[in-house]
Amino acid sequence: MRDFTDELRDVARRVTEAAGYLGIDEARNRLVELEAEIGRPDLWDDAERAKQVNSDYAAVKDDIDIYDGLTRDLSDAEVLHELARELDDESQEDEIAGSIAGLSARLDQLELRSLFTGEHDDSACIVQINAKDGGVDAQDFAEMLLRMYSRWAETRGFDVEVNYFSEGTEAGINSAEFTLTGRYAYGLMTAERGTHRLVRISPFDNQGRRQTSFAAVQVWPVMDAPDLEINESDIRMEVFRASGAGGQHINKTSSAVRLIHEPTGLVAASQEERSQLQNREKAMGRLKAMLAARIEEEHQAELDSIAGKQAQVGWGSQIRSYVMQPYQMVKDLRTEVESGNVAAVLDGDLDVFMEGFLRWRRSA
Q1: Residue 280: inside a domain, yes or no?
Q2: Residue 301, class by beta-carbon neighbours within 10 Å (0-12 exposed, 13-18 middle, 19+ buried)?
Q3: Count of H-run helices and E-run strands, the chain
Q4: Which is nearest to 248 in space by CA: 121, 333, 161?
Q5: CA triplet 9, 12, 13: central angle to 5 degrees?
Q6: CATH number assigned to the domain comprising residue 67
Q7: Is there a domain that residue 9 lies in?
Q8: How many separate domains does the chain show?
Q9: 244-262 pLDDT per residue, tens
């Protein structure tokens, strides 16, 4: 009878580590609090609060169920192994080996959670895409990135709400903003913050020359910032007609609103509501979230500087190249992760790049 003691001991070690990065002790206490909240008869008097409580409950319970399932299956495998060893029953080897392999595979998937170390990594996020150098090709590339993130979000079951959408002069888009909702949406999308570069034979060049174009992606966590006061004199409001995805009155009324915070250059917009007033309110909420995130980032950068830590690559730095000619390659310039299947990446196959970034960020 084969001895699986070392393999089972290694799985047990990994399960113990999972209890740490899942915060199981805190989660059990939190679950009790959330169950009490859900049981309140007046919970749905505040629909937004009720949705948040139910979402938090589902997430916490999911973590606990996953961990309890691992410990239960590990215990079953250990008991089976002990009995088989006592009876020298070789017929149980395949079942024990299968249990260990299954537990290891589940832990491999779960350990991605340990890479989410940021305070807001589990939050929803606001994403902005802007065409940069490259003219029409850059605008087309910006739209390609919007489609790429939409397809990626679809495969993960995330919700995408387009906040505004500005069409390009001939093709593509000048800019777009969307809110991405799903667990760890912000943590995953931090991998995309920065300047993206596309190299290809331009479909807009009559001479078929190779063109390099750029698009910038910025990401903010969706945060509650009710106490953040913004000086109205610092805000410039622009009103425009909704266009493209997300507009309810497309090209009919100038109800869409864009708010520019002059001191920082941050821009937030909304075109999904019917009235200008409602769109301004939504845009203001997003602007406050962006400013709150900016304040936190600046504070953390100051602490890192005092501690002598190297600053993370900022969103203005080039992070990834998508080369379609003269060869096929997508390469992340920070992590060295690459793929020869450009079409699949542009169709939303981004997980390998995001996981690579999270591992790189933790090691850095």
Answers
A1: yes
A2: middle
A3: 9, 11
A4: 161
A5: 90
A6: 1.20.58.410
A7: yes
A8: 2
A9: 544 433 334 578 898 999 9
pTM above 0.70, yes or no: yes
List C-alpha distances in Å: 143 to 137, 165, 347: 10, 10, 12
Q: Which residue has the higher pLDDT, 102 or 208?
A: 102
Tell me: do 33 and 133 sit in the same domain: no
The mean pLDDT of 61-89, rounded to a whole number, is: 95
Considering the domain architecture, whether residues 317 and 180 belong to the same structural domain is answered as yes
Here the CATH number for the domain that contains residue 200 is 3.30.70.1660
- Whole-angstrom distance, CA of residue 289 vs CA of residue 293: 6
CA distance to 67, 88, 92, 351, per residue, from 357 (Å): 26, 47, 41, 10
Cis peptide bond upstream of 226, omega within 30: no
Range of the domain at 348: 125-363
Q: Clarify whether residues 324 and 191 are in a common domain.
A: yes
**In a domain? residue 120:** no
User: Could you identify the residue written with the tokens 């790049």?
Assistant: 353
Q: At 194, is the pLDDT very low, low, confident or very high (cuts 50, 70, 90)? A: very high
Per-residue tokens: 110: 């779960």
Last residue of a domain, one of 115, 144, 164: 115
Residue 164 has pLDDT above 90, yes or no: no
CA–CA gap between residue 209 and residue 229 (Å, rounded): 51
- The residue out of 85, 115, 145 marking a domain boundary is 115
Q: Is the dihedral of CA 23, 28, 33, 35 positive or negative?
A: positive
